[in-house]
Write a structure and sequence with these properties.
The chain has 259 residues and is of the alpha/beta class. The protein is built from seven helices and eleven strands. The strands form two sheets. Strands 1, 2, 3, 4, 5, 6, 7, 8 and 11 form a nine-stranded mixed beta sheet that branches. It has a two-stranded antiparallel ribbon with strand order 9-10. Helix 6 packs antiparallel against helix 7.
Length: 259
């Protein structure tokens, strides 16, 4: 995607945290090369990540991994500009989203933070229903009024006041095959269970059984996930299984603590 560099009234830093992210990084950085600054915070890549990154920016910082929220907030703290566009290495901007970000930054922004519509690719298909779309994520914000949470997983931007929403899609290539996707989800559910355990949350057979069922009804039927065909079904069933496993792992942690 060839994008002319915009003239913006509010300069923006694009922040990307990386670790062995060479698979999709070039497409990611191509979509934001118009930015006033691209900042890469890498936690020890051993593939071609840094080589690719140097094609787009000389602002590359090494920082040992401290969890998703803290790592992204560290990146924000290293930026030269107050307006931040935070994207992941497997994400890229659609042309429509780029135009809307440029428009907001050329004018006086109405909000201090903006949600973007993330569109997830799964099993080779861009999901348009269920929990795959619109997967709203807050990624464009003024760091003087917003910051990343301290959550090591499922991090979010904490901000002042109301947030806006921009049209266009943040394209997310969320998996590199089902086996790799399940391996990542296994790691995520462990982090989720550990976080809930540290917060003193208890769970039981009711949550274990009914949480996945409620999730399936919500995303497959109410949110029309069935319209995404087999990829939509597998994506939602994986989410339901994750819910089951998260509660099972939390139960295991709680039982160990009582021994």
């Amino acid at each position: 995607m060839n994008i002319k560099e915009p003239r913006v009234a509010y300069p923006v830093t694009v922040t990307v945290i990386t670790l062995n992210a060479s698979r999709h990084l070039r497409q990611c950085l191509e979509s934001v090369r118009w930015a006033d600054e691209i900042l890469i915070v890498d936690s020890g890549s051993t593939d071609d990540t840094l080589t690719i990154a140097r094609e787009f920016t000389d602002h590359i910082v090494h920082h040992d991994w401290i969890g998703y929220g803290p790592q992204k907030q560290f990146a924000v703290s290293q930026a030269r500009h107050d307006w931040i566009l935070s994207i992941d290495a497997d994400e890229s901007l659609s042309p429509e989203l780029f135009e809307n970000i440029r428009r907001v930054l050329q004018e006086r922004p109405t909000f201090n933070a903006y949600n973007l519509r993330r569109c997830n690719q799964f099993m080779g298909r861009w999901l348009k229903h269920g929990e795959g779309y619109p997967d709203l994520v807050m990624r464009l914000f003024d760091r003087r009024h917003a910051r990343w949470s301290d959550d090591v997983i499922h991090e979010k931007v904490i901000h002042d006041g109301r947030a806006g929403e921009l049209a266009g899609d943040l394209m997310h290539k969320s998996e590199n095959g089902i086996a790799a996707y399940l391996e990542k989800q296994n790691h995520y559910t462990s982090l989720q269970a550990e976080k809930l355990y540290e917060q003193g949350v208890r769970t039981g057979i009711v949550q274990l059984l009914f949480s996945p069922m409620v999730r399936f009804i919500k995303f497959y039927f109410i949110r029309l996930g069935f319209l995404d065909g087999l990829p939509g079904l597998v994506h939602i069933m994986t989410g339901c299984f994750n819910s089951f496993i998260k509660h099972a792992k939390l139960m295991e942690l709680n039982r160990r603590s009582r021994r």
